[in-house]
Amino acid sequence: MSCGSPGPAGTPSTGRSCSPTSARWARVADPRPLLSLTWYAAKEIRARDRVTFSAERLDAYGMPAPRVEYGLTRADRAIAARAAELVSTVAASLGEATPGGEPRLLPAGSSLHYQGTVRMGDDPRTSVCDRDGRVWGVDNLVVGGNGVIGWPTAANPTLTSAALAVRSAAAVARMIQGV
Ligand SMILES: Cc1cc2nc3c(=O)[nH]c(=O)nc-3n(C[C@H](O)[C@H](O)[C@H](O)COP(=O)(O)OP(=O)(O)OC[C@H]3O[C@@H](n4cnc5c(N)ncnc54)[C@H](O)[C@@H]3O)c2cc1C
């Protein structure tokens, strides 16, 4: 017997032999390729989005428990609606949607790109550190990582964080050398 996953419509099966179990799956499974589309959109900065730490409650590590303040603005919702339209258009041009596969806004944090908790900037009133990662008002504290990215991004952030960390490291070297 030969079976295996048939290729896209009109192309032959791979013709490999397989077990009775996989032969049964090959009969019930939809053989068409399934594609998942994800649209990332930049989030508008809200001054009140922040992480605060509880004075009373501790987390699982015994550290002050964090609390995340985060919300979408009207502009964010408009961009998300536009992204849903675009992804639907692209999906329709590629093929048929699966039942329940309509675009939806994923829960906050789903991108895994948490940013801006110690944002850098030029104004101590609206940022935590300067452009070299030096925390305002503390001479010997330099921060790095995604937290310093204080502006909207849609693409993956790690390369940006790494580039900023290199710049901060150069500033630390200058501080140590006293230049
Ligand atoms: C599944 C997954 C896939 C991802 N894919 C991508 C991708 O393709 N491209 C991309 O750009 N980004 C991706 N990211 C995001 C990427 O991982 C982050 O952007 C990046 O790791 C952030 O770097 P960071 O230095 O800011 O934080 P982290 O990498 O989280 O580093 C923080 C460090 O601090 C340590 N730490 C925390 N608390 C303490 C403490 N109290 N004392 C001492 N140390 C502490 C932690 O152990 C950790 O090592 C992905 C993330 C996930 C989870």
TrEMBL record:
The keyword Zinc-finger does not apply. InterPro entries: FAD/NAD-bd_sf (IPR036188), GMC_OxRtase_C (IPR007867), P2Ox-like (IPR051473). Keywords: FAD, Flavoprotein, Oxidoreductase. It holds the Pfam family GMC_oxred_C. The keyword Transcription regulation does not apply. Residues 1-17 have a biased composition (Low complexity). Its cofactor is FAD. Residues 1-22 are annotated as: Disordered. Residues 50-165 form the Glucose-methanol-choline oxidoreductase C-terminal domain. Belongs to the GMC oxidoreductase family. This is Pyranose oxidase. It comes from Actinoalloteichus caeruleus DSM 43889.
